[in-house]
Design a protein that fits this description.
- Belongs to the ATP-dependent AMP-binding enzyme family.
- InterPro entries: AMP-binding_CS, AMP-dep_synth/lig_dom, ANL_N_sf.
- Pfam families: AMP-binding, AMP-binding_C_3.
- With about 600 residues, the chain is α/β, with parallel strands linked by helices.
- The chain folds into three domains: about 180 residues, Rossmann fold, CATH 3.40.50.12780; about 180 residues, ANL, N-terminal domain (Rossmann fold); about 130 residues, GMP Synthetase, Chain A, domain 3 (2-Layer Sandwich).
- The chain is about 40% helix and about 20% strand.
- It has a seven-stranded mixed sheet with strand order 7-6-5-3-4-8-9, with helices on both faces. A five-stranded mixed sheet has the order 12-13-14-15-16, sandwiched between helices. Strands 17, 18, 19, 20 and 21 form a five-stranded antiparallel sheet that branches.
- α2 crosses α6.
- The longest helix is centred in the middle third of the chain and has 22 residues.
- It is globular and about 70 Å long.
């Protein structure tokens, strides 16, 4: 059986974990680029106690909101667990947010305190402090900053206060009490503050435990979760809670996005929660740069792997005609692909955006189970998921235990269960996010097959309606284009236009080395206009168009002179595309495609 030690709320999770797991490692992090250090469960609880008691001594009351503005790191986890142990409510702020975005979240939540990672984050708050009348305290984790209380001072206060008050508060928290205000990353409009209760997150944790016990009867004894996603996001927070609940260890990333794959290889995780862009990059690393004939052989070998692993998962015998090529591919291909993930991965989970079916099949065939799921901040992360035993690639899986799913007459996916949120703080939305008779309107168009597998067709707000009245779903074409080793992002455009077009961006990690080898310009801006690069993108567009009906095919494309980025507002912190912002930032590019006739 899977061990679970969490109580009815998350307020005392750190203390329960310390009692259950003692000196087992809870966190692994880089103190230097070459040095990984660890914190035990006992040490984690001690740090939580000091910090939580220090906040109480500062004047924090039960029910107060406390924001955290920092990257994924052990100190974030300590601050989070301390806040909820003190009976307060955690407010997540993405570390990439601008000062104005921070002002919206901190102001809308009426946070009394904010915990900032460093002086740069404190500066954001200082710039908008006059717009935050409820904010009383700013705490800094690293170093010092004017107007901020140091973390060492908070810990000193905590050591001098009787920790019994912290324990008493943690024990008094009820499942119905607010746990976190989790602000949606906002592909349209200002972020909405989802109020998620302790009971909501406990429901999704229990669903995951039930799912694992059902589909994976042999629990992992040495769970290692590599975590690079922002802990301000519901998906990362869930994995943190599940890991601590089960006595695993979180390997925290070092802060450099270019080092994610090397760090995965170094930490050898058993679990990897991620977003499609990371798996797409690893797929390109494994397959994309190979000659066409070699690439076809690799994909054929992976297809054999899929058939064999499905038989093995069901406990069925593998015919000799499959076992022989499988064994050959194990040595020639599969081991190398698994090594890209550290060689110890038991389960990777992808969500937040669509991913190509072919990528999932390739990794699964190689022995890297990347399982796609679907969820929202409003569902405390999880709603549907594929598992190793029960999967149907191309779908987002079946509803997790305890959750109901149906599709209404308009094709919108509706969900009902204990993990559905409590509403938006000081904000209502009459359509997406509304809860009617317990059913959450997801804003996604979907279908559910006879076996209960859910397929997401697209966001209702993302559907493109051409001037001729044709409804188009961008995801299929965009996903196909992103399978090209040369393409980083693809955004279809065509709402109220005569036909669809697409903007693509180049992937510098593959394009620049190729250009250097060919003696071509070494800048993305120049390569975006180079005839040879344009020709290769044209081939990718032609291949993607060939899979679509004639009205769905893009007539033209343009290559941007840079990639999409969070800094320019085109991507959310979980790398989802903000279509409206892309449309505004690249308006001239799109207009030119239609002006050309």
């Amino acid at each position: 059986m899977y061990q679970t030690i969490a109580g009815k709320t998350l307020a005392d999770l750190a203390f329960r974990a310390a009692e259950a797991y003692g000196d087992r490692p809870a966190a692994r992090f880089q103190s230097t680029p070459d040095q990984w250090d660890e914190i035990s469960y006992r040490e984690l609880a001690e740090r939580v106690t000091e910090f939580g008691a220090g906040l109480i001594d500062l004047g924090l009351e039960v029910g107060d909101r406390v924001a955290v503005l920092g990257t994924t790191r052990p100190d974030w986890s300590v601050a989070h667990l301390a806040i909820v142990a003190a009976g307060a409510v955690h407010v997540s702020v993405y570390p990439t947010n601008s000062a104005d975005e921070c002002a919206w979240v901190v102001g809308n939540s009426e946070a009394r305190a904010i915990i900032c990672e460093d002086a740069a984050q404190v500066a954001k708050i200082a710039a908008v402090r006059d717009r935050l009348p409820a904010l009383e305290w700013v705490v800094i984790l690293d170093g010092e900053a004017e107007g901020a209380i140091t973390a060492s001072e908070i810990r000193r206060r905590g050591r001098e206060l009787d920790a019994e008050e912290l324990r008493r508060r943690a024990a008094a928290v009820a499942p119905s009490d607010p746990y976190v205000f989790m602000y949606t990353s906002g592909t349209t409009g200002p972020p909405k503050g989802c109020v998620l209760s302790h009971g909501n997150y406990r429901a999704i944790m229990e669903a995951n435990t039930a799912l694992d016990a059902r589909d994976n009867p042999d629990p992992e004894t040495d769970m290692v979760a590599y975590l690079f996603l922002p802990l301000a996001h519901a998906f990362a927070l869930l994995f943190q809670l599940l890991t601590f609940d089960r006595g695993g260890v979180i390997a925290y990333w070092g802060g450099d996005t270019t080092r994610i794959v090397p760090e995965v290889m170094a930490t050898r995780p058993t679990h990897l929660p991620s977003v499609p862009r990371v798996f797409e990059k690893i797929y390109t690393l494994a397959v994309g740069s190979k000659p066409a004939d070699e690439r076809e052989r690799m994909l054929a070998a992976a297809a054999v792997g899929v058939r064999v692993r499905d038989l093995q998962a069901r406990g069925e015998p593998v015919p000799a005609e499959l076992q022989q090529p499988f064994d050959a591919a194990e040595a020639a291909l599969f081991q190398g692909v698994r090594a890209l993930f550290g060689g110890n991965l038991k389960l990777a989970t992808t969500g937040a955006a669509p991913i190509a079916k072919e990528i999932l099949e390739f990794f699964y065939g190689c022995g890297v189970p990347v399982m796609e799921g679907f969820g929202m901040t409003e569902t405390s992360t999880g709603a549907t998921v594929n598992t190793v035993l029960n999967h149907r690639f191309g779908t987002v899986g079946r509803p997790v235990p305890g959750l109901e799913a149906r599709v209404d007459e308009d094709g919108e996916l509706l969900l009902r269960g204990g993990n559905i949120f409590q509403g938006y703080y000081k904000m209502e939305d009459a359509s997406f996010g509304a809860v009617e008779d317990g059913w959450l309107r997801t804003g996604d168009l979907a279908s559910i097959d006879e076996d209960g597998y859910v397929s997401i067709i697209g966001r209702k707000k993302d559907i493109i309606v051409t001037s001729g009245g044709k409804n188009l779903t961008p995801a299929n074409l965009e996903n196909d284009l992103k399978r090209s080793p040369w393409i980083s992002q693809a955004v279809m455009h065509g709402d109220r236009r005569p036909y669809p077009v697409v903007l693509v961006t180049l992937d510098p990690e593959t394009v620049l080395p190729w250009a250097q080898a060919q003696g071509l310009p070494d800048s993305i801006a120049e390569l975006s206009r180079h005839p040879e690069m344009v020709g290769m993108v044209q081939q990718a567009v032609d291949a993607a168009n060939a899979k679509l009906a004639t009205p769905e095919r893009v007539k033209k494309f343009v290559i941007a002179d840079r990639d999409l980025a969070q800094e320019t507002g085109e991507l959310t912190p979980t790398l989802k595309i903000k279509r409206k912002v892309v449309g505004e930032n690249f308006r001239a590019h799109f207009d030119a495609l239609y002006e050309e006739g």
